Amino acid sequence: MDENKDLMTEEASVEQPSEELTGTDALAEFRKNHQSYKFRETPKPVRFLFTLLKYLVLIVGCLLVILPLLVVLLGAFKTHDEYITTNVFALPAAPQWENFTTAFIDGDVLRGLLNTAIILLISCAGTIITGTMTAFVLQRFNSLFTRAVKAVFLVAALLPNISMQVTVFQVINSLGLYNTIWAPCILYIGTDIISIYIFMQFLDNISVSLDESAFLDGASYFRIYWSIILPMLRPAIATVLVIKFVGIYNDFYTANLYMPSKELGVVSTALYRFIGPYGAKWEIIFAGIIICIIPSLIIFISLQKFIYSNLVTGSVKE
Amino acid sequence: MAAPTKAKKRDFFDWLHGYTGQKYTTTILFLLIPIILMILFTVIPAVNMGIFSFQERDQFGASVKWVGLDNYKTLFSDSSYFETFINSIYYFAGSFVQQAVALLVACILCTKIKFANVFKGVIFFPYMMNGVAVSLIFRRFFQKGDGITNTEGTLNSILMLFGADPVKWLSNTDIVNWCLVFASVWRYIGFDIIMYIGAIQSISPDIYEAADLDGANSWQRFRYIIFPSIRPIIALQLILAIKGSISVFEIPYIITGGRFGTSTFVIRTIDTAFTYQHVGLASAMAVVLLAIILVVTGIQKAIFREDK
Predict the structure, then answer these.
(1) What is the ipTM for the molecules in this complex?
(2) Are residues B28 and B122 in the same domain?
(3) Do B191 and A39 touch (CB under 8 A)?
(4) B8: pLDDT confidence band, cut at 50, 70 and 90?
(5) Chain A within 8 Å of B119 (Cβ-Cβ)?
(6) Minimal C-alpha gap between A40 and chain B (Å)
(7) Which residue from A131, A194, B14, B97 has the highest number of Cβ atoms inside 10 Å of its Cβ?
(8) Chain A: nearest CA to B178, how far in angstroms?
């Protein structure tokens, strides 16, 4: 960090061209240590080799991602006999679309997608409403009470989510929510502190004078929240929606723990249950995997830039 | 007599509609549901966790027995519980490699590269994928064929192209954890790459220009410009890696079910609580995990205090 500061302050001196171009402290030091070393253009063949190496690293990386997926894609179209006898990279003789139908209907992936969609809808709506309201109060009103709530949220964010389920289970059970679709919904809404933080951070940048002038005009705080704050929070809401989608769509243990019944399978648990009845029928499992990945792929391709800037920055800030 | 009460009532409503009154009512109304949810799903479970750790009980609280520190004694004396922590070391080592490779790829992607977006997209996509799907994909990836129900998996097929013998990746206790770590790195590395790219791109271009004037080469650029300015992020990532590696759950749970010496502390906790119904012991395990996470967070806060 300190070196970085030096670089920043050094900037000004760089702009004035002089006989000795002292770029940075660090570089100057480097020169002192390597006085015999002369800075010169990298020769062309070396640069070419570097470029080649760069592409090689990227291509190997992409192959490592693609190969396991390619095997799944090819396998999903094979017959069971083909699966047993042919090499993983061998093309299927004729595409077996029945695998997808089996996975979709008999394998309950369809029901999983529907249940996941319902859970996503309820928990996203719930998180946006409660999250923005909480953030509004905590960020705008500074009282002993709001500070205390903020502190509790801060501590709650540290609790390790999965091992907390040891005791969360009894609460869910005594509320009569066990084995209902409400268990994951209420947990996704009630334990989502990161979203509140994202909303609060965004509110930091919305001027308080806006609320104040509306208040002087006679608007109630609820109105200020509803007609001024909420519309302005739209970018933050979009960020939260992306984080929630990835989190909920890919979550496994909440549904696995609280919704054991077959009718309440979500995408993850439907796929997980393939291991039992389809344990030896990998071509069906592969088809299920492909179906599960497609929604993520569509969202990723259509929102690529948005996901890079929001998913990553959003979850790092915490 | 009626007049004063009316006036008083008016006063109250005026106050209620005024600045302070609205502040109170909004605070209460807006926070009501979040606070109830927080008490139900965070405060009560956390308090229970502490209490239960001194008890012997099942999930339904039918036969509760106070056992004092017995649960903790079991945890610290029975080495099989702490052996699961050893497995965390594999994941922590893996995340070291993950950070290094992510940084390398991020630096490459920040230079002039054709199809940079395609490369970035492909490498990032696993992060978006369902964890169960990833786990199943890697079950097939590391599968050892038996010639009857299975052909060789992806990795063995590739190795056999080069004339190697197929390996039993997932049932060999010496290598199975490294396989799981590989799956974990495969899934999460894209996230780190995008984050490092963001950090590198936020460095002022003026500094690069200055370095160019000085004729700095790629390595010097990295060593003296990029690395110093993103060092705080690397440090943060490594601390998050400690937390991540002691709470690994999904990948070993689905790929091997915790068998062949791949169980982690969290898998053990969940099994203890829900398969064996030893809620007291499981609570004690959760308390231990929480304590470790608090210590790591304390270290993190101490390191990053000055940066904020």
Answers:
(1) 0.82
(2) no
(3) no
(4) low
(5) yes
(6) 6
(7) A131
(8) 16
Cα separation, A90 vs B141, in Å, equals 15
Please spell the DSSP secondary structure of B83-100, one letter per residue.
HHHHHHHHHHHHHHHHHH
Tell me which chain A residues have a C-beta less than 8 angstroms from the C-beta of B198.
Answer: 308-309, 312-313
Shortest distance between the Cα of A60 and any Cα of chain B, in A, equals 10
Domain containing residue B190: 85-304
**Shortest distance, CA A54 to any CA of chain B (angstroms):** 6
Exposure string (b/e) for A254-291, b if CB count within 10 Å is 16 or more?
Answer: bbbbbbeeeebbbbbbbbbbbeeebeebbbbbbbbbbb
Is B174 near chain A, with CB under 8 Å?
Answer: no
- pLDDT tens for B270-292 read 888 888 888 888 899 899 888 88
Amino acid at A139: Q
CA-based nearest residue in chain A for residue B249: A162
- Asked whether the predicted pLDDT for residue B167 surpasses 70, the reply is yes
Contact state of B269 with A41 under an 8 Å Cβ cutoff:
no
Question: Is B17 found in the same domain as B106?
Answer: no
Q: Which of A166, A233, A284, A307 to mutate to test binding with chain B, by most B CBs within 10 Å of its CB?
A: A166
For an interface test with A, which of B130, B182, B265, B275 has the most A Cβ atoms less than 10 Å from its Cβ?
B130
Burial status of residue B296 (CB atoms within 10 A of its CB: 0-12, 13-18, 19 or more): middle
In a domain, B102, yes or no: yes
Q: Does B195 sit within 8 Å of A316, measured CB to CB? A: yes
What does the pLDDT read at residue A130? 92
> Which DSSP symbol is given to B54?
T
Overall CATH class of domain A107-275: mainly alpha
Q: Is the pLDDT of residue B2 over 50?
A: no
The stretches in chain A having pLDDT less than 50 are 1-22, 36-38, 317-318
**pLDDT the model gives residue A186:** 92
Which position has the higher pLDDT, B103 or A81? B103
Distance CA B245, CA B262 (A): 13
Indicate the residue of B126, B158, B224 with minimum beta-carbon distance to A30.
B224
Q: What is the pLDDT of residues A211-229, one digit of tens each?
A: 888 888 888 888 888 888 8
Contact A65 B125 (CB under 8 A): yes
- B193, part of any domain: yes
Angstroms from A235 CA to nearest CA on chain B: 19
Q: What is the mean pLDDT of residues B81-90?
A: 83
Q: Structurally, how many domains does chain B consist of?
A: 2
**Mean pLDDT, rounded, for B54-63:** 79
Find, in chain A, the residue whose alpha carbon is nearest to that of B118.
Answer: A62
H-type alpha helices, chain B = 2-17, 19-38, 44-52, 70-77, 79-109, 116-124, 131-141, 154-161, 176-201, 205-213, 218-221, 227-246, 250-255, 265-270, 279-304
A137 contacts B27? CB cut-off 8 A = yes
DSSP string over A279-293? TT-HHHHHHHHHHHH
B92 and B167: one domain? yes
Question: Which residue in chain B is spatially nearest to A137 when comparing CA positions?
Answer: B27
Q: What is the pLDDT of residue A318?
A: 42
Lowest mean pLDDT: which of A88-102, B175-189, B223-237? A88-102
User: What is the per-residue pLDDT across A191-205, written as a single tens digit (0 to 9) for each?
Assistant: 888 888 889 888 888
